[in-house]
Amino acid sequence: MTGWPILFSALAMTAIVGVRYLITSGAFAFATKLKHPRLYRGLERQMRREVGWSLASAAIYGIPAGIVAWGWQAHGWTRIYTNWDAFPLWYLPLSLLAYLLTHDTWFYWTHRWMHRPQLFRIAHSVHHESRPPTAWAAMSFHPVEAVTGAVVIPALVFLIPIHVAVLGLVLAIMTVMGVGNHMGWEMFPRALVHGPAGRWLITATHHEQHHAAYRGNYGLYFRFWDKACGTDIGLGDFSAAHRRREHAADACSDR
Ligand SMILES: [Zn+2]
Ligand SMILES: [Zn+2]
Q1: Where do the Fatty acid hydroxylase domain residues begin and end (predicted)?
Q2: Which of 3, 56, 67, 73 is the 20 to 30 Å CA partner of 49?
């Protein structure tokens, strides 16, 4: 039957996305335990829910990715290339930037759209049920939201030529930033976050503020759209949030 290779590719990609999530979130959760031992205390039920939604999202991400990967291998679909000479070398960083900027633009507008009250209840409240989010919340999305995220890269590979290694880098950045931005502490140095680069780049301190305020800071990688549209609400403050968590953890252990 001709459908089997497609099905196999979709299942394999689902497994890859799921395992990638478990390894990355697991590693960051472990780093959190070392750095802030009490930060996730009392959040065990929430974390189980985050893992459940994230693994469901892995299937939603894996299906289009698997179909496109199959089409690339079997029929030469997509503009993914493997020969380093196919484009000039300067195109490598340019393609990386093009993918990140396009993904960021898509994310900003779909995310902002999902904050409209009616749609929020259907599609986006699952992601905001994590209060505060943990490293396991990186893919904690309702299936509707997961679909909006899952189609981006599989669509872009048909439009913008990209070397397969740069595509791997795009996916790695997407995964690390997705996990890092939710883990409840900042992994980047203060000089970067509060310096000139931090005025344009999104890290955990920026996205945490989105989760704290339920509005504003809708971007993914860059603060460009938030600044251009007046939705940038500035950087969050982890120290206050950490103090609150310490008290919550104390209250839990007193019971
Ligand atoms: Zn949101
Ligand atoms: Zn988030």
Answers
A1: 97-231
A2: 67
